[in-house]
Amino acid sequence: MSSVPHIVVVGGGAAGITVSAMLRQGDNPPAITLVEPSATHYYQPLWTLVGGGVFPREESARPTADFIPDGVTWVQDKVVSFDPEAKTVALSNGDTLSYDYLVVSPGIQLDWHKIEGLEGHLGKDGICSNYRYDTVESTWKTLQGLKKGRAVFTYPSTPIKCAGAPQKIMWLTEHYLDKHGIRDKVEIVYASATADIFGVERYARSLRKLVAERDIHPLYKHDLVAVRPASKEAVFRKLDGGDEVVLSYDMLHVVPPMSAPDFVKQSPLADKAGWVEVDPGTLQHTRFPDVFSLGDACSAPNSKTAAAVRKQAPVVVRNLQDVIAGRAPSARYDGYASCPLVTGYGRLIMAEFVYGGVPAETLPYDQSKERYSLWALKAYALPRMYWHGMLRGRW
């Protein structure tokens, strides 16, 4: 190993850039190579509000080059495989990168192909989704055109990024219809593979009350498996058994199944479920001590959010520094995640919790209640803190 360790960071999303920026701070920073194919960096938490017509989608996009930390070498290519025994990473262009230490943060893979009949119809025919930059505007267009009938909002049976997002657009839709005097003309169905409206009881209690008050029709343990665009029908598999359920729709907001990227699933770094196998506290790989992982692709059982990355990044940086210095990892991640649950225009419940679904609120009032101040935090403060703080390694 050279006197200056070389760290390869795979993925230039929130996790990869934040870790790279933090590692470059201070005296004698390591050499860092960041592998990221995309020329555009997206602040994806804003897409809920883009789909609800609050912001144009361009507000969520910035050039990746603007956020590559000084001194970091950016390789604009895709990783195709890992060889942790040889300490190398193979790229799609045929090149191989060697490393002393590896940080794996490539994000999550959207498996649209697992929904039969969806290909070629996303973004039209009443089918929309906030989960992709090129389709998020279709949600707003579909919502504006909805005058009567049924709006269906889905949640898949896999782990997903931002577990609150499938219902956030539902609440915005409900509020939009109410403000335009046509709420009674549209049935709203929340068809979710989950067993409840939210996984943390403190916030689920508040959300169940809203479901009843705002006449939402929940269908739990229902997993979208197919769409029939010609007849505007959505097909669901019942996870507790029984016949398939077919629902007609006038608006169908689709959240795709998700998984670790294929090149992770097929690598020696993966656990049985395909995620990068890490200790949930130290975020160090359980079999390769020179490898760390954070963000959506790692196996830690936390909610997959940018807020989780904000807490994971300092842990990875500290523990990397410990390992480089020959010490045992000293920092621990407690599973913190935050989910700003948009419940309408100008109202929001802020869920904050750690491992085990234990609430961990940071503000001096009850965050399980709808508040405008929390909406303003999500819409106006958090994006600025992300672009100017977190990605610069300062927050």
Using only C-alpha atoms, the radius of gyration works out to 21 Å
Q: At the first level of CATH, what is the class of the largest domain?
A: Alpha Beta
Report how far the terminal alpha carbons are from each other: 31 Å
CATH architecture of the largest domain: 3-Layer(bba) Sandwich
Mean pLDDT across the residues is 97
Question: What characteristic shape results from the CA principal axes?
Answer: globular
* Strand count: 23
Sheet having the most strands? 5 strands, parallel
Q: What is the percentage of strand-forming residues? A: 25-35%
Domains, number: 2
Give the strand order, joined by hyphens, for the main sheet: 5-2-1-9-20
Helix and strand arrangement:
Blueprint: E1 6-10, H1 14-23, E2 31-35, E3 40-42, H2 47-51, E4 61-63, E5 72-75, E6 79-83, E7 88-91, E8 96-98, E9 101-104, E10 109-110, E11 127-128, H3 136-145, E12 149-155, H4 165-179, E13 186-192, H5 201-213, E14 216-220, E15 222-228, E16 233-238, E17 245-248, E18 251-253, E19 258-259, H6 262-265, E20 291-293, H7 306-324, E21 337-344, E22 347-354, E23 358-359, H8 372-388
Parallel strand pairs: 1-2, 1-9, 2-5, 9-20, 11-18, 12-13, 12-18, 13-14
Antiparallel strand pairs: 3-4, 6-7, 7-8, 10-19, 15-16, 16-17, 21-22, 22-23
Helix pairs in contact: 1-7
Describe the overall structure:
The protein is an alpha/beta fold. It has two domains: 6-108 and 260-335, FAD/NAD(P)-binding domain (3-Layer(bba) Sandwich); 114-253, FAD/NAD(P)-binding domain (3-Layer(bba) Sandwich). It is built from eight helices and 23 strands. It has helices spanning 14-23, 47-51, 136-145, 165-179, 201-213, 262-265, 306-324, 372-388; strands at 6-10, 31-35, 40-42, 61-63, 72-75, 79-83, 88-91, 96-98, 101-104, 109-110, 127-128, 149-155, 186-192, 216-220, 222-228, 233-238, 245-248, 251-253, 258-259, 291-293, 337-344, 347-354, 358-359. A five-stranded parallel beta sheet has the order 5-2-1-9-20, with helices on one face. Strands 11-18-12-13-14 form a five-stranded parallel beta sheet. A hairpin with a 3-residue loop joins strand 22 (347-354) and strand 23 (358-359). The chain is globular, with a radius of gyration of 21 Å. The mean pLDDT is 97.
